[in-house]
Design goal:
The protein is mainly beta and about 300 residues long. It has 1 helix and 13 strands, in the order αβββββββββββββ.
């Protein structure tokens, strides 16, 4: 994994040097800005092992059906006939969702002795990416591009309105826990645009990511743990982002469209550091952290 990540960083650095040494023709430069209102649905889960890896899953937390409204912007600047820069950023707020916190005494999620089902209808998400692109082919009816970039994705998640379901003790007061996940690392991608007729264009895009993962937990009801960061997580991961979009040309400067994106990230075999109130720490195995997301977005493009 580390070797592949270093390779992607090397490709990105070589791309910068190539463009610096072999500049493209300024006369062909153009800039376009895409603005997307978005609707997104996320799932996020992590689990960890116990001391000495027994049980192999001692605790698992799930955030499911997180419904997110937001906005995304993409700025693309042509550096000539073959090369371009692309920067994108997005932000969204969580308005609905559910959380489950389960603890086990046996391997493979057996002997579940504690479960709470909680509300997760607050929080936010943030995404940022910067990439260099090369047009491998640029024909009147089709365009294929290779991209190399670096991405940052964060999730700020909450747990409130706690209900203890195992044992069935019912609602309990004071739950206001939080979890922050951060993925960041290089990626490679390929994009293909196909003209369907004079007005419509179909775009497909796939990206392969190699992020590192960091997480911070704040379990506000745990008096035996340090605050505000009760647990730290870190691991290496990989991810896939796939996109499909239809665009309609409304004039010489304006385009409109509709897109769907699927994101799947997985980090495995990491570390969970438990921070105790007395200042000591303990480290156990973070089995995995998984994030998957569907995003639906409308598009308005203005080309300068």
């Amino acid at each position: 994994m580390t070797t592949m990540k270093n390779l992607l960083l090397c490709i990105l650095l070589c791309s910068v040097l190539f463009i610096a040494v072999f500049p493209t023709t300024p006369a062909t430069a153009a800039t376009q800005f895409d603005l997307f209102p978005t609707y997104r649905q996320d799932n996020f889960v992590w689990n960890k092992a116990g001391l000495n890896d027994f049980p192999n899953i001692i605790s698992e937390l799930k955030w499911e059906n997180l419904r997110i409204q937001g906005v995304k912007g993409v700025l693309k600047h042509d550096m000539g006939k073959r090369h371009f820069l692309e920067a994108s950023g997005g932000w969204g707020w969580i308005y609905s969702g559910a959380n489950q916190d389960s603890d086990y005494d046996g391997d493979n999620r057996t002997d579940e002795y504690s479960r709470s089902n909680n509300t997760a209808d607050h929080g936010n998400v943030f995404d940022l990416s910067l990439a260099l692109g090369w047009r491998l082919q640029d024909k009147p009816t089709r365009r294929t591009s290779l991209l190399a970039g670096y991405a940052i994705n964060s999730q700020n998640l909450t747990m409130t309105n706690g209900v203890q379901t195992i044992p069935p003790d019912g609602p309990f007061a004071g739950l206001n826990a939080a979890y922050k996940g951060l993925w960041r690392g290089p990626w490679l991608g390929i994009s293909h645009e196909q003209t369907l007729d004079k007005k419509w264009t179909l775009t497909t895009r796939v990206e392969y990511h190699l992020p590192t993962y960091n997480g911070e937990a704040h379990w506000n009801l745990r008096t035996d743990l340090a605050h505000p960061v009760t647990n730290n997580h870190w691991a290496n991961g990989q991810g896939l982002v796939a996109s499909l979009g239809f665009d309609y040309v409304a004039g010489p400067s304006w385009q409109f469209g509709a897109w769907v994106d699927y994101t799947n990230y997985l980090a495995k075999n990491g570390t969970d550091q438990v921070n105790f109130a007395d200042g000591t720490h303990a480290q156990i195995r973070l089995n995995e952290a998984r994030w998957d997301s569907w995003t639906f977005r409308l598009k308005a493009t203005y080309r300068f």
